[in-house]
Amino acid sequence: MSRNRQQKMSKRTLEQWLSEYSVSHQNLINKKIHWLCVPTIFVSLLGMGMSLSVWFTLVLSALVLLFYMKLSTPLFLAMGIFILICLSVMTLLPLSFKVWAAVFVVAWIAQFIGHKVEGKKPSFLKDLQFLLIGPAWVANSLMRRN
């Protein structure tokens, strides 16, 4: 990838990211699937990570939060709270790596079904950073409803 393209991609605002992500998330069925599965994937990733290495997972979570902080302070706070809720759920439901992995796989299958219904490819196939924008899109959807 050219340096100019990398700079342009990293300089996007939250609104630009969300707008581009929304293009492939217009169908109501796909939206509902994503509203359920994106947080499920996020928590399952944390669960798998915590099963393998608590410190690595916490450091990686902090780096993810830095990405969100660069985009928006309210998003950073919302995702920070969400991560704390996820960690609390993991404490209450101490599931094994295999269970978290199964949840992860099922949620991804559902998302691909949603994109089949939508008729559009997932955004992350264009840019892997969209894997972090999905949770931001869900959080933004929740913040706009209130």
From TrEMBL:
Keywords, in A-Z order: Membrane, Transmembrane, Transmembrane helix
Pfam families on file: Mpo1-like (PF06127)
Superkingdom of the source species: Bacteria
InterPro entries to which the protein is assigned, alphabetical: Mpo1-like
Segments crossing the lipid bilayer: 41-68, 75-93
Protein name: DUF962 domain-containing protein
